[in-house]
Task: structure prediction
Amino acid sequence: MRVKPVVIIIPILIALMGLITGSSLAWQLLTFSALVLGFGYLWLIVNIRGIEVKVRDFPEHSRVGDWFEEEVIVSNNSIIPKSGLIVSGKSDLPGYMNSVLLDLSPEDSHSWKSRIDCLRRGLYSVGTVNISTSDPLGLITINRISGESRKLLVFPETLVLPFFEPETYVGTDYGMGQLLRSETSSTIGQVREYTSGDTLNHVHWPSTAHTGALMVKVFENDQMRYQSQNVWIILNMRREDHALTQEESTDDYAVTIASSLLNKYLDARKETGLLMAGDRRYVFTPGFDNEFRDRADEALARIRADGKESVSHLISEEMDRFDRDSVVIIITPFIEEDLITHVHTLRNRGCLVVAIILDLASFGGRSSNLKIARNLSAGGAQVYIVRKDDNIARILDSRHVSSPLMYGE
Result:
């Protein structure tokens, strides 16, 4: 119940005036105001009694970008008409609005359907409504919660990424480490200076003798394809690495990319694993059945960027899970120096490494340390930079994978 301050202040002032002046008129006014308030409260009780509300047709789960219809049925089960009822849906679902003003005849009912858009992933409460009504003078308002609260799980948005094919466009230019199972082209395109992580099998000795610096061969890659055994998606959810805002935060971008990649590979029946650390560490060993998809989707819907574990530490701790010829996709808004070392280790184990980096500065956060992306690429990783408002499907186009030379000195 909500009472306007005037309801308390005016009777107190009248009573004080009566005590000071001894006027009978003041006491009559006090009695009249008490009767008005009593009548108003009684009117509220009668007006809200006998109201029944049912909420129907909402699902147990949905996905960002989808919508559903919510039907609300309000019934007056008494023989007294009701007026001025404000019925408002209650939910913590972002953007949720569902409110109407009703007058109901005796034993009458009213129903309506509303479109509810799912704007952000997460677990939300739906199914309850707040019924409020005020007395004729608007001095007192009474509220009643009705309906049954239920949970709605909103999965992250899933994008179609038709041209994300890192296995098709793998190159040997930087930090090959071991030879891939698919082997490499025998045609040498050029030579370049040795980079940590390069295999010594590719040293070009004539150029090394000529320049005095260790030089390695760069092979033509137009006929190469990496034959992967499985795919690992690694998601950085450490709080200090993200730019967290009410809308379009880096954690939602990261989860959207992870969910899109997960569904892409699972639809292709490719064994896919998921590794991330939020409130706790999540490890989903590679699988591709529906049960695996449901568990991974639910974890991606619930996880928040409130972790303390760095992605470098996460990879180091779980290094033994990555097999020779695994595709390892790292999604992170921040690059640590240690990450370069782990990329070299993965490459030397025979893994194909992809780094998808969210540019923190474009989200209003600190620098993402993008200059280190040059070193990641030189270490053998395919690097993609995603900025706020980018067309993610266009950015994650392996036909135009980023060159290491674009990141500056």
In short: Residues 48-155 form a domain with the Coagulation Factor XIII; Chain A, domain 1 fold (CATH 2.70.50.60). The first helix runs from residue 5 to 21. The mean pLDDT is 84.
